[in-house]
UniProtKB/TrEMBL annotation:
Name assigned to this protein: Phosphoribosylamine--glycine ligase
This protein's encoding gene: purD
Catalyzed chemical reaction(s): 5-phospho-beta-D-ribosylamine + glycine + ATP = N(1)-(5-phospho-beta-D-ribosyl)glycinamide + ADP + phosphate + H(+)
Enzyme Commission no: 6.3.4.13
Pathway: Purine metabolism; IMP biosynthesis via de novo pathway; N(1)-(5-phospho-D-ribosyl)glycinamide from 5-phospho-alpha-D-ribose 1-diphosphate: step 2/2
GO biological process: 'de novo' IMP biosynthetic process; purine nucleobase biosynthetic process
Length: 425
């Protein structure tokens, strides 16, 4: 098989790396890829942006691609799967209509209300005065979310009404452009977050291993939201009983509801959950592999990813299970100084050659490029150091040991990834 992976971040490096390890796969093409994907065996980069749908379609035709795997959410929401399927090309991911589960938080909340899927009380607003009145009526801490795609940064967890109202004004005032022209205000849920991902073929569901990410910038899960500063799998909070409830109360009703509304979901269904006393409630839906959750998942996955995605794209998931390494895996994200605000690019990265990569340790590139001096920084989140270990503590120590060898001016990373798992004893 020849596979096209759309995207150029850490998630796409992990997917390309795992796909290339399949004996079924002849070549993986990443568009646009990064410095890490360019160095992988059986992987080549193509200079086509992930939002250039016409260019991606031409690339897939020219390279006789057998299957396209879409990494980021933006091309999914823009309809890349619809374009490929209309051209007779297999593409793994949801249609634009189904991708509204991620592309519009208002749509997702209304969908959950229609299908009795557990989530927080909410309101949707385009007028700041109406939003302020709702905040006052709730009378407790809220989350303010931009309706559209904001690269994981369009969420403010407000501790009081003043902070909530300021976030509403900022979003409706244009901070996130069109993505913030409408906001969702919802009650803050108590509990522990977890990520529950499934492969879906429109009808059949294959749950993947649980994971948990750390969205905030600073240690102790404080500071501004980012695209993700680290993740690990499995998440101890997702016990067998919790996983059963998630499947029965969230995943199955979502897949059935999407089909009943004429927009069957095919791709990765990602439920971001808050779990309190064993009860799951949905914080958000995503319609693709998480980043950075994908990295530890790919390290643990023993099954042939290419075979699973091919069957999901063809509606043949009913007789499949995924096999997992029993050991936990953990990813530490190294970011550019200043992220998620303004940051510099173009710094040479030192120490990559000093990291002994193997089956238990992998450096996944996110925002990197190849420059005259070697690999340089080219994004906010730059690298995702991912390790397996006999325990979460061992995986974290292994990842941090590698991260400590890699330097550039302003490099920043958290040292407490996985602290909730470690805190459970």
């Amino acid at each position: 098989m020849r596979i096209l992976v759309i995207g150029g971040g850490g998630r796409e490096h992990a997917l390309a790396w795992k796909l290339a390890r399949s004996p079924r796969v002849q070549e993986v093409i990443c568009a646009p890829g990064n410095a890490g994907t360019a160095a992988e065996p059986k992987v080549t980069n193509a200079p086509v942006a992930d939002d250039d749908l016409d260019g991606l379609l031409r690339l897939a035709r020219r390279e006789a691609v057998d299957l396209t795997v879409v990494g980021p959410e933006a091309p999914l929401v823009a309809g890349v799967v619809d374009r490929f399927e209309a051209a007779g090309l297999r593409c793994f991911g949801p249609s634009a209509a189904a991708a509204r589960l991620e592309g519009s938080k208002a749509f997702a909340k209304d969908f959950m209300a229609r299908h009795a899927i557990p989530t927080a009380a909410y309101g949707t607003f385009t007028d700041s005065a109406d939003a302020r009145a709702f905040v006052e009526r709730l009378g407790r801490p809220v989350a303010v979310k931009a309706d559209g795609l904001a690269a994981g940064k369009g969420v403010v967890l407000a501790d009081d009404a003043a902070e909530a109202n300021a976030a509403v004004e900022e979003m409706l005032g244009g901070r996130f452009g069109g993505a913030g022209a409408r906001v969702v205000v919802e009650e803050r849920l108590e509990g522990e977050e977890a990520s529950f991902l499934c492969l879906v073929d429109g009808e059949h569901i294959l749950p993947l291993a649980s994971s948990q990410d750390h969205k905030t910038l600073n240690e102790g899960d404080t500071g501004p939201n980012t695209g993700g500063m680290g993740a690990y799998s499995p998440a101890p909070v997702v016990t067998g009983g919790v996983a059963h409830r998630v499947m029965e109360e969230v995943v199955r009703p979502t897949v059935a509801g999407m089909a009943a509304e004429g927009t069957p979901f095919r791709g990765v269904l990602y439920a971001g959950l808050m779990i309190h006393q064993g009860r799951p409630r949905v914080l958000e839906f995503n319609c693709r592999f998480g980043d950075p959750e994908c990295q530890p998942l790919m390290m643990r996955l023993r099954s042939d990813l290419a075979a699973l995605l091919e069957k999901a794209a063809e509606g043949r998931l009913d007789a499949n299970e995924a096999a997992w390494d029993p050991r936990p895996a953990l990813t530490v994200v190294q970011a550019a100084g200043g992220y998620p605000g303004a940051y510099e690019k173009g710094h040479p990265i030192d120490g990559l050659d000093a990291v002994p990569e193997g089956d238990q340790l992998k450096v996944f590139h996110a925002g990197t490029a190849r420059g005259p001096q070697g690999v340089v920084t080219a994004g906010g989140r730059v690298l995702g150091i991912t390790a397996l270990g006999a325990s979460v503590a061992e995986a974290r120590d292994r990842a941090l040991g590698a991260a400590d060898r890699i330097r550039w001016p302003g490099v920043y990373y958290r040292r407490d990834i996985g602290h909730r798992a470690l805190g459970r004893g």
